UniProtKB/TrEMBL annotation:
Transmembrane segments: none annotated. Keywords: Coiled coil, Leucine-rich repeat, Nucleotide-binding, Plant defense, Repeat. This is NB-ARC domain-containing protein. Residues 215-379 form the NB-ARC domain. PANTHER family: DISEASE RESISTANCE PROTEIN RP (PTHR23155), OS12G0204800 PROTEIN (PTHR23155:SF1045). It comes from Oryza glumipatula. It comes from the Eukaryota. Residues 75-102 form a coiled coil. It holds the Pfam family NB-ARC. Belongs to the disease resistance NB-LRR family.
């Protein structure tokens, strides 16, 4: 498992949010004339916030995990300080709202009474104790200042890391070195994908006169997009298609371009020209390359394969690329592979052609088993290893049809040809596959690290739900907002709602979720919409959220919880001993707690869970299936930050 890496310790407290909190805190202190003595604190924070951003921007998450425990710890300290300041501001606002209601209730009193109420308000807000809202706010700002000072210890580290990166000839090489490259098949043998290949080859070689007329009239090139998770076999399928004899006969040439993550038309022009002419172009400016490309391809009926495309934001980049591809002979086609539907959407929209989408799923069970056997057994006849057949079949079945996962696991097991080892791997270690699993997740992590911080934190949050959970849009959006995952610097709840819904839509389009439809027929037709997360994506979410999110199902799991955990889901709590339940109250930073379905829960257990919830003062979200509304402890607990409650009783 990963440690608490920068990607969720640092970017979750991105500096715009810190600046917003600091400005808001000082506006309240100035309003109550209690900012005296904090001028230096404010100045240091303003100076250190850009430095904090520089650390967050340039340091690689895996670099934090592997090489600097001190930096990792400081980022958690910073996050703690930011959240404490956020809590203090919220408590002050609650107190102000209560005072406002009290003032409105006394509006019919005399002016003298009104002035007295106003004076009482200031006493209540500032107070005589260390726990009063304004005193706590001042204390948290000092704590935030102390945490922010720590950035000075890591600026030299950042510079060293930047120099290391700048000395690399190819900064993207580490990210793509393990990928299949080029149109030549990397696999010595491909299993399955015949139906998928037939469908796409049929579309690519379709020569209907109606389609050709549309192309001539609109100057667009039809695009087919293969969309699927990392490691699912998109590149391999595209390679199979490019080698099909029907493709070679139908097109004058097949142009293969491995698209870099930094999508740039000039670079792509150069790659396309090299693929067509088999030589490097003699010109290097954008305009010259554009004219050169038009000249080379204007009389060619080509199939352009754009492999592993990421660009789904900048329309102008796609316009620049397609500007040289719009004119030419009939019959040209583009085949695109990507992990994100949003890429396919944007490419088709810019080309102004109908979107042709081919979602690529996992291999069929028998195909995946053949792939597993091929990589697990040195001898091509696996029957020689009869003792391994049954356990191998069960392992292959659990690998969910993902070719990359299957090959990595099979290769790992081939180095340990003992039945006992395979059985142990199947029953104990499959879900926690260490070294080789990191190689599998390395592909998926590329997609995750490509997300903006807001999408990252919402994706991680979903790891607290069980696998195959059906996410309802309205419920998930409300939980994200209540848990504080959606930035509300604008202060508008409606905008937070819109932002959360947009996040969910983006995660779906980027293939981190899959949208499902269920039809109900109870005298009428209804369509129920929900989202699911692929098992591999759930594994990824669990991996990247370590230290921040957790889901436990037994006492052993509760003992492994890290003190930094913010969001927690507990399954089977009816089987927990009382001491294990009590231990949950030590996680004072918890913002979300979910108590999953319980069966035959005892009154003593229910009371202990109530006490735990009452003790967790930072809670924002509570979801439980063991309380009725009348028994929920929130009414008597001092849970000032609670924003979302969903309770039901079995």
């Amino acid at each position: 498992m990963a440690s608490a890496v920068l990607v969720f310790a640092g970017k979750s407290v991105a500096t715009p949010a810190i600046s917003f909190l600091v400005n808001k805190a000082f506006s309240y202190l100035n309003e109550y004339r209690k900012a005296e003595g904090l001028e230096a604190v404010k100045k240091r924070l303003e100076e250190n916030i850009p430095k904090i951003q520089s650390v967050i921007d340039v340091v690689d998450p895996d670099y934090i995990k592997d090489k600097s425990e001190a930096l990792d710890a400081w980022l958690w300290q910073l996050r703690d300080a930011v959240e404490e300041a956020e809590d203090a501001i919220h408590e002050l606002e609650v107190e102000r709202d209560q005072n406002k209601v009290s003032h409105q209730a006394s509006s019919s009193f005399t002016r003298i009474k009104h002035r007295f109420v106003q004076s009482v308000k200031h006493v209540r807000v500032f107070g005589k104790t260390s726990n009063s809202p304004l005193k706590r706010l001042k204390k948290t700002l000092v704590g935030l200042d102390e945490a922010a000072k720590g950035v000075e210890n890591f600026l030299t580290l950042v510079k060293i890391h930047q120099n290391t990166r700048s000395n690399s000839n190819n900064p993207e090489q580490d990210n793509i070195s393990f990928r299949a490259k080029g149109k030549d098949l990397n696999a010595d043998r491909v299993f399955g994908r015949e139906n998928e290949k037939e469908h796409i080859v049929g579309w690519l070689t379709n020569t209907s006169s109606e389609d050709n007329q549309v192309v001539m009239n609109n100057n667009h090139v039809p695009i087919m997009s293969i969309v699927g998770h990392g490691g699912i076999g998109k590149t391999t399928l595209a390679q199979l298609i490019s080698h099909d004899p029907r493709i070679k006969k139908h097109f004058d040439t097949v142009i293969w371009v491995a698209v870099p993550m930094s999508f740039d038309a000039k670079t792509l022009f150069d790659k396309i020209i090299q693929s067509v002419t088999l030589s490097k172009p003699s010109v290097d400016t954008y305009e010259a390359l554009q004219q050169h490309l038009k000249k080379e391809i204007e009389t060619i009926k080509y199939l352009l394969i754009l492999d592993d495309v990421w660009e789904d934001k900048d329309i102008s980049k796609w316009e620049n690329l397609f500007s040289s591809l719009r004119t030419g002979v009939c019959g040209r086609k583009i085949l695109l592979t990507t992990r994100m539907q949003s890429v396919a959407d944007l490419a088709s929209a810019v080309m102004r052609c109908e979107r042709e989408l081919f979602p690529l799923c996992g291999l069929e069970e028998d195909e995946n088993l053949r792939l597993f056997n091929h990589h697990a057994f040195i001898n091509p006849d696996p029957q020689e290893f009869e003792d391994f057949q049954q356990v191998g079949k069960e392992i292959a079945k659990k690998l969910r049809g993902c070719p990359l996962v299957t090959k990595v696991v099979a290769g790992h097991l081939r180095a340990h040809m003992k039945v006992q080892f395979w059985n142990t791997f199947l029953h104990e270690h499959l879900d926690n596959f260490d070294g080789s699993m990191e190689n599998v997740l390395k592909v998926l992590k590329l997609s995750y690290y490509h997300l903006v911080p807001g999408l990252q934190v919402c994706f991680r949050y979903c790891s607290i739900f069980p696998k195959n959970h059906e996410f309802k849009k309205e419920e998930l959006v409300k939980m994200w907002i209540a848990a504080g995952l959606i930035s509300q610097t604008t202060g508008a709840a409606e905008r937070a709602q819109d932002a959360a819904e947009e996040y969910l839509d983006l995660l779906n389009r980027k293939s981190f979720f899959e949208l499902k439809l269920r039809n109900f027929r109870f005298g009428r037709n209804e369509c129920h919409e929900y989202f699911v997360m692929h098992d591999l994506m759930h594994d990824l979410a669990t991996w990247v959220s370590s230290g921040e999110c957790a889901r436990i199902a037994d006492v052993a799991g509760s003992k492994k919880l890290k003190p930094t955990v913010r969001h927690l889901s507990v399954a089977g709590i009816d089987g927990f001993p009382v001491d294990a339940i009590k231990s949950l109250s030590q996680f004072k930073n918890l913002r979300t707690i979910i108590i999953e379905d319980c069966h035959d829960i005892q009154d003593e257990t229910a009371r202990e869970v109530e006490k735990v919830i009452e003790s967790l003062k930072a809670l924002r979200v509570v979801q439980s299936h063991m309380f009725s509304r009348s028994r929920f402890p929130g009414k008597k607990a001092n849970l000032k930050h609670l924003r979302y409650v969903s309770v039901s009783m079995n």
